[in-house]
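Thread: quick sanity check before group meeting

JM: Hey all, I'm pulling together slides for Thursday and realized we never actually wrote out the predicted structure for the chain we discussed last week. Dropping the sequence here so it's in one place. If anyone has concerns about the input, flag it before I start.
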Amino acid sequence: MITASIITIGDEILIGQIVDTNSSAISRSLGSIGVRCSSMSSIADDRDAIISESRKALKNNDIVILTGGLGPTKDDITKDALRELFGSRGYVINQEQSAIIHSILQSRGLDRLEANRNQALVPDGCEVIPNRRGTAPIMVFRFDAAKFGHTATLYSLPGVPHEALAALPEILDDIKSHYILDSIYHKNIMTYGLAESALSELIEPWEDSLPQQIRLAYLPNTLTGVRLRLSCYGMDQERAEQLLDSKTEELKKILSDKIYATTDSNLQTEIGRLLRGKGLTICAAESCTGGEIAHLITSVSGSSEYFVGSVTSYAIEVKEKLLNVKHKDIVKYGVVSGRVAAQMADGVRKLLGTTYAVATTGLAEGNDDFEKEGTVWIAVSGPHGTVTKKFEYHNDRIRNIQRFAATALDMLRTYILDDLY
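JM (edit): ok, ran it. Output follows.
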């Protein structure tokens, strides 16, 4: 299988000043055409580091993609490092990129400085994919088998994300025209309610039975649960899809309603699919989640069809006066309790007149006289009564809030499923 390595260049990445978003986007794009990313690395703006890391990556891979270090300033030394690695004797002007630079600067009312003109210079012998979004060209270096024991190609891209990503379609086309690629197909299985370790243990016999052509990845996320990604290599599309679908059906029998989607989805989207077109509505009463549930639900296009609104009842007075939570129950059981959560859900459902309601009350940080940090009580109210459940998490404040909200959405989802089916 054709493999690739992605290298990002820049001190600003290493010191945490900016986040490298290029690598993940490039890797996804490579995977879509059957190229497997074998490694990613970030290195400093250092000539020796660029040459050493590029040489190592080219020795171990068919394709190397570099991003960064191609601006007009003097500290951008990538081009000269690559010239040395490639063995070029000097530089030549790429006329197409030169014209683009002139056009960009003219449109901005800027003079064409020497530094900008120099960006059109490329090492002799390299090929150029014009960068129509910026001034630094995309350079393509093709190495024959004598250099690294196999033919290899290095693509050097600007680090600016919108420039690098805009060049990807042409780079993918170039790869496809120079390499015989294996097919690769992915299937995503979204799960919620099981930690990665528990999930792994539960499906271990199924995982062990996977054929050699299928690889499994566990991809946990606070808001969406654990995504299981099945990747099938080296098969035609029809056979790959049949095999992936067959293995997915086997997994459904093991995990049941812990699986909420077999596409790359999220809980709020799946709730929308359950409700849309049926005249059913939902609302929320949030204390510890502070509006996070409403935010997630309304992030889905078309959610206005079924989401009526929410009450962020952070203060006890709001719970009592607006949602009719009984003061005596707060005193006796605590504000973080099943009784309070149930009354919040019933109260907001009656207030807003919806089919279903979900409520949260918990402690994202700190303890009270009744419960400890990380505790949340969630209630869901609907036509067939109100259910409550207690959960305990051990994260920081922000992650606790996110996990509270996601768990509330999953409880709402399973309640609706049971009610409808």
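AS: nice. Residues 274 and 420 are 9 Å apart (CA to CA). The chain has a mean pLDDT of 92.
JM: adding both to the slides.
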